[in-house]
């Protein structure tokens, strides 16, 4: 007879699984308790895996959402960039017109100065 560590019941030695690690060659817990314990561990592992998967899926979804937001932001920035380039072009054209007029005015001033002398 052997006392189970979990249920504390005195049971026949055949109600315990064999183990090379223990002194009497049998596990400290009876077969019934051992099976229950390993089933509980398996259940915990299973729920852990499910929640792990769930977390991974959530992470992937949040990454996808981030990518979508970033893509939207990029297209917004590209549109802004186009506007900036257009404005820069306009400014460049205006600057060119101003410098052209400036040259014209300088020429006129020179012509007036030449006439005076
Ligand atoms: Zn037991």
Low-confidence stretches: none
Q: How many structural units, i.e. domains?
A: 1
- Kindly state the mean pLDDT as a whole number? 91
The helical percent reads: over 70%
Rounded to an integer in angstroms, the radius of gyration calculated over CA atoms is 43 Å
Strand % is 5-15%
Query: What form results from the Cα inertia axes?
Result: rod-shaped
How many strands appear in the DSSP assignment? 4
Distance between the termini: 136 Å
Q: How would you spell out the order of helices and strands?
A: EEEEH
Which strand order does the major sheet show? 1-2
Bound ions, cofactors and other small molecules, one mention each: zinc ion
Helices, by number, come to 1
| Classification by helices and strands | mainly alpha
Largest sheet report: 2 strands, antiparallel
List keywords for this structure.
two-stranded antiparallel ribbon; 117 residues; 74% helix; binds zinc ion; mainly alpha
């Amino acid at each position: 007879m052997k006392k189970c560590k979990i249920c504390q019941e005195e049971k026949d030695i055949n109600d315990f699984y064999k183990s090379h690690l223990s002194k009497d060659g049998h596990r400290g817990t009876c077969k019934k308790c051992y099976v229950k314990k390993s089933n509980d561990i398996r259940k915990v592992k299973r729920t852990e895996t499910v929640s792990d998967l769930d977390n991974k899926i959530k992470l992937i979804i949040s990454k996808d959402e981030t990518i979508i937001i970033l893509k939207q932001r990029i297209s917004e920035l590209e549109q802004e960039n186009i506007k900036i380039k257009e404005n820069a072009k306009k400014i460049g054209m205006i600057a060119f017109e101003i410098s052209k007029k400036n040259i014209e005015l300088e020429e006129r001033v020179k012509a007036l100065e030449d006439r005076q002398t």
